[in-house]
Design brief:
By secondary structure, the chain is of the alpha/beta class. The chain has 3 domains: 126 residues, no CATH class; 94 residues, 3-Layer(aba) Sandwich (Rossmann fold), CATH 3.40.50; 192 residues, no CATH class. It is built from 14 helices and 10 strands. A 4-stranded parallel sheet has the order 2-1-3-4, sandwiched between helices. Strands 5-6 form a two-stranded antiparallel sheet. The protein starts with 12 loop residues before the first helix and ends in a 6-residue tail after the last helix. It is an enzyme of class 2 (transferase).
């Protein structure tokens, strides 16, 4: 088999990607940024920096099954890190007189070209697999059930991913032996083995692991119905003791925390300066004209690590003693006319950008509940407290997925928790931007449960 026939042995793809990207950032620097100055120091510095940053951000860990949205997420992360890196260089070497605006333009131009080349390679490989049958991997599946049939169907219906499925073994057949399967794998030069955990015994799994290791075969497991196997487990060693972490939270990474906090400060500052600065006096006038009471409504809610904080909103109800106990319901007589409008358009939530600026909240995250509701749901809803692993948000994935507003049944809060946990475990800056965009669209369109 040639080096390029099977994806497992396509060892040139990543070095080629490195070479293209390094050529882009160095060529554009020489032609645009340096202006005829000696390029050696700058080129050496950013080339080494680029490689180190890409290793840290996993920029080149793009596989045949990686989705385009995940590639965009990697690009955004690498862009921010590289921009900060070039700024750091300009601060260290004043003699080159590299200024902030040209640095930003240089970085954006570089990444525009890098995105083009990265997606060109991604889609050209898909075309190559479909049209010429190259860069593929042969697979077998151990175990026959709904999940393995779904995987087999995926392999057969998506040739652009480059999987050539050869056989699915049913271990409910008592006449089937592992040695027979192993002979087939060796004879047909199978690259990857997929095992259904629920269909195999511990001794069979041990034999398959040994076979895969001894014959250089890639071995992957399909989770069964047991919940622990469907998690993104992190494998670590404490001395020589292997430890599995059940839940990985991207925002526990210090770099991700800095990126999210920086975005929160920038976004909230823009809203406060360009929108709240003139909108607040107008809303205050309308609120005061209709009913007596304060312009802002303050309510204690639970945030990061279950800590209580004061959450601010424009007042949308007549002052009442039940405001901290009961959510607004459809046709609620406590809601004023002005309140009905600002709740429908989500304008009442805008003061929470001050909470974001102060660090109590984030622009995107699980919506915080009033303290009385948090205590109630914590006792009756499984995994409800997981939401407090990150800062609460003005908007969130649950809210743009149909779970905003009043909790009318346990189904509503269970759905909200499910989306919140997915967000916590799969956070990315690109996901935040997508949620913000969808929130804006929903606010303009109007939502049924915004009352």
């Amino acid at each position: 088999m040639s080096l390029f026939k099977y994806g497992r042995y396509s060892g040139y793809l990543r070095p080629i990607s490195y070479l293209i990207d390094l050529s882009i950032i160095n060529a554009i620097a020489i032609l645009y940024l340096l202006g005829g100055k000696e390029p050696f120091i700058f080129s050496a510095f950013i080339s080494v920096g680029w490689v180190l940053l890409s290793i840290y951000s996993k920029f080149y860990e793009v596989y045949r099954y990686t989705r385009p949205v995940n590639i965009l997420s990697l690009v955004v992360k690498q862009l921010i890190l590289f921009l900060l890196f070039v700024f750091a260089f300009s601060g260290l070497y004043h003699d080159l007189k590299i200024y902030p605006r040209p640095i930003v333009k240089y970085t954006l131009f570089c990444f525009s070209l890098i995105i083009i080349f990265k997606f060109a390679i991604y889609y050209l490989l898909q075309k190559y697999r479909v049209s010429f049958g190259g860069n593929y991997r042969s697979t077998v599946i151990f175990g026959l059930n709904k999940k393995t049939l779904a995987l087999e169907n995926f392999f057969n219906k998506n040739p652009e991913y480059g999987y050539l499925h050869q056989k699915t073994y049913n271990f409910k057949n008592k006449n089937l032996s592992l040695s027979e399967c192993f002979d087939f794998i060796l004879d047909e030069k199978i690259d990857e083995i997929y095992c259904s955990i629920s269909e195999l015994t511990n001794s069979q799994i041990a034999d398959i692991v040994d076979f895969a290791d001894n014959n250089l075969k890639i071995l992957k497991f399909i989770p069964d119905s047991k919940e622990i196997y469907s998690k993104r487990l992190r494998y670590e060693y404490y001395d020589y003791i292997p430890i599995l972490t059940l839940r990985t939270i991207p925002l526990e990474d210090s770099a991700n925390t800095i990126i999210k906090r920086g975005f929160d400060i920038l976004f909230s500052s823009i809203i406060i300066v360009f929108i709240l600065s003139w909108l607040t006096p107008l809303i205050a006038i309308f609120i005061k004209l209709e009913s007596k009471g304060p312009v802002f409504f303050k309510q204690s809610r639970n945030g990061f690590n279950y800590r209580e904080f004061d959450c601010y909103k424009f007042r949308s109800m007549t002052p009442n003693e039940d405001a901290n106990l009961y959510q607004a319901t459809r046709g609620d007589q406590r809601v004023t006319k002005v309140g009905r409008f600002i709740r429908k358009t989500s304008i009442d939530e805008l003061p929470q950008f001050f909470n974001v600026l102060f660090g109590d909240m984030s622009v995107v995250g699980p919506r915080p509940h009033m303290v009385s509701h948090t205590n109630m749901y914590a006792k009756k809803i499984d995994k409800f407290m997981v939401r407090h692993f990150v800062k609460p948000g003005i908007t969130g994935l649950a809210q743009v997925s149909g779970f905003r507003g009043e909790v009318e049944s346990d189904k509503d809060i269970i759905g909200r928790v499910k989306y919140d946990i997915f967000y916590i475990e799969n956070w990315s800056l690109l996901l935040d931007i997508k949620i913000i965009a969808q929130t804006f669209v929903n606010a303009v369109r109007g939502e049924d449960k915004a009352y």
